[in-house]
Every structure is written in structure tokens, then in C-alpha cells.
Amino acid sequence: MKITNDIRYIGVNDHELDLFEGQYIVPNGMAYNSYVIVDEKVAVMDTVDANFADAWLDNLRAVLGDKQPDYLIVSHMEPDHSANIARFAELYPAAVIVSSAVAFRMMSNYFGTDFAARRLVVGEGDALSLGTHELAFYTAPMVHWPEVIVTYDRTDKVLFSADAFGKFGALDVEEDWACEARRYYIGIVGKFGAQTQALLKKAAVLDIQTICPLHGPVLTENLEYYIRLYDLWSSYQPETEGVMIAYTSVYGNTKKAALQLAAALRAKGCPKVAVNDLARGDMAEAVEDAFRYSKLVLATTTYNGDVFPFMREFLHHLTERNFQNRTVAFIENGSWTPTAAKVMKGMLEGCKNLTYAQTDVKILAALNADSAAQLDALAEELCAD
Ligand code: FEO
């Protein structure tokens, strides 16, 4: 695949993976992107996952022909991109490895060598000329590991953005970008909003016409759309006016309340309502939705004097990703002493700028006239502002 006259795609699609990073389902697979810039000097941009070494090297050879690579630029040391550095270095002994100082320390840990005799350490604003192509490096710590650098090709106006602007999904499957890019960003980079904002500020002064991420499609058109979403996500602002109801239910009574609230919200004209069963749905999708919508309703059972385990896990995912700037409401169920709302509120204590709904819904085992009226009042309140 040709990105520009001199830049080629040499990445691979993975349809065998069960869980990306050991936890995220990837129904449409995963792409590990890698690129080559062919100039007087040839630069390879990152490697791919260990399971695809041969396919990647075949792609590389197909582009190189008789040429030899002069540089391997390593933007990120997570093994989905770095696994083949040592193999590349062995195959191409004259090539120089280019990366950040922190990345070379990680190479020692992964490969037992930091390539001291054949490395180029680069940092903020450093440049490298390939002949026609002038490359500039920028640090992007914690987007999403500390060693990350991004590379800007001044000649073709291409940003090699590392994990930023990546998504789940292989490139041979057509799907909406935002859905899987959001789940990827919130799940994987979500904790590091401030650092992503710092990267966006650096990118804002560059004339970027193409973004080449390490996952997902190369972005060539309407870049403002992608940058605007990244800005919203990394500044923890809601993307969609609407309500996300996250629930757990043991015998169906809490579920009934969650669905009844959703129906009431829809009946009152609430613009968007999403409902997630935390025990049965994809937890990463639920976490994504919590960050997407402006309002969150937490409905759960009291369990061992605490909250139901899936709700505890869900709230932990939110707090570790700096959940903030949202309206939150509680529906608690308890057959004898409901404590779930108090526990959930306690778990959210450290979150910035949360507004709690005035209406709490308390269910004693099953919905009755009182709790149904509370549900209706909550729907009214959530629709009002
Ligand atoms: Fe795609 Fe953070 O590795």
C-alpha cells in the first residue's frame, strides 16, 4: 500500500488474536502497522507483533528490492510493535536503531542489548535527514508508555503518531472508525489525558496532511474530525449528550429497573440512551460509554455489604482513568440493608467535577409503587437539564 510516493505500508492484520493486550476482545482483529520511507536513506518505522515476523519481513523485502534499510525508527516498545527489533537488527547489521533513551533501556530488558554500537538516541525536536525527507522527532510520554516518540516527516507532511489515533480492528474489515477508536483510546490511553493533550498541542503547530498510526487505518482526509474527538476524549469532556445506564442484576429486579428507566428516558425524549449489563456485556464497551455520554446511571445490588463485583470492577476502571465532568445517579437494590449507593459514592469520591442527581432510587428486593415513582422522578430530572 502506497501512502505517498516514498512511503509504503508494510504492516499486518491479525485475525487470530483472542484478547488484545491480554484483555480487550477484538471481534474484527487487529492491525499492527509498520511503514517504510524510501529515500537516499531508507527508514523503517517500527516492527510488528512477534507472530507476524515473517509476513512483515516479506512485506519489507517486497518494498526494499535490492536496497538495505539504513534506519529502524522505534516509536514504542510495547511488544505489539517492538517484538522484531532484535531479528531486524540481526538481518540488517548495518542499520542504525533510532529511538528515545528510555526505549533503549527497555530494549536491554527485552533483548539483552541496548544496541550501543549502532544506535541513535533522539529526543524532543531532534531531526534526521534521509535525503529528501526531513524527519523531526517529538516525545509523547505516556501515549501510551513513557518512552514513546512520534515522527513528523516535514517533506510529505506525515505524522507517524505511534498509538495515538489507533483503533481496534484489522484493516481488511470495513467498520466505523470512532466506535473502535474510542474503545481503544479510553481503554488503553484513557488514564493519560493530560499527556495526550500535550501531544495534541505539539501536533497543532505542524502542517499535517496524513496520520500514520500504529493501529487502524492511515488517516488522510478530514483530519479535524479525528483531532476533535481526540481533544474531547483526552480532556474528559462528554462527546454525546445522553444517558448511559450501567447495571448488574442477580435475579432480574435491578435489570427491570434499569430497563424501565431507559424506557422512561426515551419516552421523555432524552436524545440518547445506552444500557450496559456489566456482567454479560464487554466491560471495555461499558467503560467507553461511560466516558462518551454526559450522564451515567449506576444500578446495582448490595452484595456482601458492598456492591456486586462487576460494578466494583467497572467503577475501578472509571476511577483509574480519571472519570470526571459528568452527572451521576444511583439505583440501589438490597433485600434487607441496601448499602450499594453509599459504597458507589465512596468509590467515586476522588473524581473531579461530578454532579450527583437529586433523586436516588432505592429498591427493596423488587420494584414497588414507591421505587417506580423514584425511577420516574429520576428520568424527569435527567431529561430536564
Ligand atoms: Fe500498540 Fe501501546 O502498543
**CATH homologous superfamily identity of the largest domain:** Ribonuclease Z/Hydroxyacylglutathione hydrolase-like
How does the helix and strand content classify structurally? alpha/beta
* N/C terminus separation: 49 Å
Question: What are the low-pLDDT stretches, counting only 5+ consecutive residues below 50?
Answer: none
CATH architecture of the largest domain: 4-Layer Sandwich
Instruction: Give the strand content.
Output: 15-25%
Mean pLDDT, rounded to whole units?
A: 97
In total, how many domains does the architecture comprise? 2
Biggest β-sheet strands, sense, barrel: 7 strands, mixed
Helical segment count = 12
Just give the CATH class of the largest domain: Alpha Beta
Name the shape in a single word: elongated
Protein model, in words:
By secondary structure, this protein is an alpha/beta fold. It folds into two domains: 7-234, Metallo-beta-lactamase, Chain A (4-Layer Sandwich); 242-380, Rossmann fold (3-Layer(aba) Sandwich), CATH 3.40.50. The chain has helices at 53-64, 79-82, 85-91, 101-111, 177-189, 193-204, 223-234, 253-267, 283-292, 309-320, 340-347, 369-384; strands spanning 7-9, 12-14, 19-20, 24-25, 30-32, 35-38, 42-45, 71-73, 96-99, 119-121, 127-129, 134-139, 149-153, 158-160, 210-212, 240-247, 273-277, 293-303, 306-307, 326-333, 354-356, 361-363. Strands 16, 17, 18, 19, 20, 21 and 22 form a seven-stranded mixed sheet that branches. Strands 1-6-7-8-9-10 form a six-stranded mixed sheet.
What is the strand and helix layout of this fold?
Elements: E1 7-9, E2 12-14, E3 19-20, E4 24-25, E5 30-32, E6 35-38, E7 42-45, H1 53-64, E8 71-73, H2 79-82, H3 85-91, E9 96-99, H4 101-111, E10 119-121, E11 127-129, E12 134-139, E13 149-153, E14 158-160, H5 177-189, H6 193-204, E15 210-212, H7 223-234, E16 240-247, H8 253-267, E17 273-277, H9 283-292, E18 293-303, E19 306-307, H10 309-320, E20 326-333, H11 340-347, E21 354-356, E22 361-363, H12 369-384
Parallel strand pairs: 7-8, 8-9, 9-10, 14-15, 16-17, 16-18, 18-20, 20-21, 20-22
Antiparallel strand pairs: 1-6, 2-5, 3-4, 6-7, 11-12, 12-13, 13-14, 18-19
Helix pairs in contact: 5-7, 5-9, 6-7, 8-12
